[in-house]
Design goal:
about 425 residues, alpha/beta, Urease, subunit C, domain 1, TIM Barrel, 2 domains, 9-stranded mixed beta sheet, 4-stranded parallel beta sheet, 17 strands, about 25% strand, binds zinc ion
C-alpha cells in the first residue's frame, strides 16, 4: 500500500468470518474496507493513515441492523402500562400518531436514530407510520442523512379500518418516494410497508408489492404478532395470514415478515419454500405479552431471521444488545433447552449478513470490553451477547465515516436535542388529550 488512506483502526479484536484477529487492524478508504490483517499495523501503514483509531481493549464488529422499528414512537415510551396490543394501539398510539406534525416527527426520528447509533446500529429499518403529508416522511430521510446512519423507510399504510387511505393516494406517494428518495444517497432506501394483513386489501397489497419489486425493493409487514390477529384474518379470508400472503403472490424473497409469533407448521414450511425473511422482536413481544416467536424452528428450517427492537412505545428502548440477549434467552425458554441458539448465531442475526471483509462497505462498531459488567472476557462473542450494553459502544463508523466517537454523536449536540424532545413530547401529549 503506497497511497494515503482515510482511516486505520488498530490494536482491536477484529471479528472476521474465519474468527477473531487479536490484535488485528483494518484499513478504510472511500467508504470501503480495503485491508484486514492480523497483528499490529506496521509503521509504514500507520504513517499513510489520515486518521488512526486505537481500538485496544475493544471488539471491532460489523454494524448491527435494527431490522424493525417505528422511530416516531420515541415520543411514546413507557405508555403501554399493561395494555395488550389492540387496546394499546386504539387508546394511545393511534391518537398520538394522528396528532404529530412533521417537526415532531423529525425530532422523534432524530432521537430514535441517535439512540440506535449509541447501540451500535448502522442500519435501521423504520416502519414509518406517520404519513399525513409527504413532508412527514421526507424529514425522516433528512434526519438519517444528517446523523449519517443507513435508514430504510418502509412507508406504512392501511386501506381498511382506522386511518385508512385510498389506494390511489398510497400508490402515488410510494411512487414519489421511490423516485425521489430511494438510493439517492447510499444511506437511504424506501420499501413498501403495509401495516398488517387485517388492515390491507388484497389488491392494494399486490399493487404496492409490484411497485416495490419494480424498484428492486421489498414489502415489510407485521404478521401474526398476536393470536387475535391470526383469527381476524382467518375469519375474513378463510386463510391464516402467511397462507393469505402466499395466495396473493406476495410471499417471497422480497417479503419481510415482522414478528411471526403465531405461525403454524404449514406457515413455517411456506416461509421456507418462499425464502421469506422473518424479523424477530423479542423485547416488544414480551412487553405486550404477545408470545414468543418459534425462532429455533425458523432457524432449523433455514429461514433467515433478523432482529428488531420494534418501536419505543412497546420496547421501550432501541437497545440492540438487550434485544440480542433477549432473543437468546426467550429462544432457550421456548425450547426448554440451553443448548439451542448459540451467542454466535444471535450475533450473526444482529449483523444481518454484514461482515468485515475487503471491499465491503465500512460499517463498523467498536465495543469496549473492559467494563465492570464485562471483565474477565473468556470468550468475546459470549461477552458481547450476554454482558455488553449499549453504553459500551465507543465508536460507530457508517460508510467509512465516523458518526459516533468516544460515545459522542458527531453531527449534533445531543443534550440540546434531548431538551427539545422533552419539551415537544409534553406538548404533543397535551394536544392529543393524553395525561
Ligand atoms: Zn412494529
Amino acid at each position: 500500500m503506497a497511497q494515503s488512506f482515510d482511516l486505520l483502526i488498530q490494536n482491536g479484536h477484529v471479528f472476521t468470518e474465519t474468527g477473531w484477529l487479536s490484535p488485528g487492524y483494518v484499513v478504510i478508504d472511500s467508504g470501503c474496507i480495503r485491508q484486514i490483517k492480523n497483528g499490529e499495523a506496521p509503521q509504514e501503514i500507520v504513517s499513510l493513515a489520515k486518521r488512526v483509531i486505537n481500538a485496544s481493549g475493544m471488539a471491532v464488529i460489523p454494524g448491527l441492523t435494527n431490522a424493525h422499528t417505528h422511530l416516531c414512537q420515541t415520543f411514546m415510551r413507557g405508555l403501554a402500562n399493561g395494555r395488550p396490543l389492540l387496546s394499546w394501539l386504539k387508546e394511545l398510539i393511534w391518537p398520538l400518531q394522528a396528532a404529530m406534525g412533521s417537526s415532531e416527527v423529525a425530532l422523534a426520528a432524530t432521537l430514535g436514530l441517535v439512540e440506535n447509533l449509541h447501540s451500535g446500529v448502522t442500519h435501521v429499518v423504520n416502519h414509518h407510520k406517520i404519513t399525513h403529508t409527504l413532508e412527514h416522511t421526507q424529514v425522516v430521510c433528512q434526519a438519517a442523512q444528517k446523523i449519517g446512519i443507513r435508514c430504510t423507510i418502509a412507508r406504512a399504510w392501511s386501506d381498511r379500518g382506522s386511518g385508512a387511505e385510498g389506494q390511489r393516494a398510497i400508490l402515488d406517494e410510494l411512487e414519489e418516494l421511490f423516485s425521489t428518495c430511494h438510493n439517492v444517497s447510499p444511506l437511504i432506501r424506501i420499501a413498501n410497508g403495509p401495516l398488517t394483513p387485517w388492515r390491507a386489501t388484497a389488491e392494494t397489497l399486490q399493487r404496492t408489492h409490484a411497485l416495490a419489486q419494480h424498484y428492486n425493493s421489498f414489502t415489510h409487514i407485521h404478521v401474526a404478532e398476536t393470536r387475535d390477529e391470526v383469527q381476524m384474518t382467518l375469519n375474513e379470508t378463510g386463510l391464516r395470514p402467511i397462507a393469505w400472503l402466499d395466495a396473493l403472490g406476495v410471499l417471497g424473497t422480497d417479503c419481510q415478515i415482522v414478528h411471526g409469533v403465531w405461525v403454524d407448521e404449514q406457515e413455517i414450511s411456506l416461509l421456507r419454500e418462499r425464502k421469506s425473511l422473518v424479523i424477530h422482536c423479542p423485547v416488544s413481544n414480551a412487553v405486550l405479552g404477545s408470545g414468543i416467536a418459534p425462532v429455533v424452528q425458523f432457524l432449523q428450517q433455514d429461514i433467515q431471521v433478523l432482529l428488531g427492537t420494534d418501536g419505543s412505545a412497546s420496547n421501550d428502548t432501541q437497545d440492540m444488545f438487550e434485544t440480542m440477549k433477549m432473543a437468546l434467552c426467550l429462544g432457550r425458554v421456548k425450547a426448554l433447552d440451553p443448548m439451542v441458539l448459540s451467542p454466535q448465531k444471535v450475533l450473526e442475526m444482529g449483523f444481518a449478513g454484514k461482515s468485515i471483509r475487503e471491499n465491503q462497505p465500512a460499517d463498523l462498531v467498536l465495543v469496549e470490553l473492559d467494563s465492570s459488567h464485562t471483565v474477565p472476557v473468556h470468550d468475546i462473542v459470549s461477552a458481547l451477547i450476554l454482558c455488553s450494553r449499549s453504553s459500551d459502544v465507543h465508536t460507530v463508523i457508517v460508510d467509512g465515516k465516523i458518526v459516533l466517537e468516544n460515545h459522542q454523536i458527531c453531527a449534533l449536540d445531543e443534550k440540546a436535542l434531548i431538551q427539545e424532545c422533552n419539551h415537544a413530547a409534553k406538548k404533543l401529549l397535551e394536544r392529543a388529550g393524553i395525561s
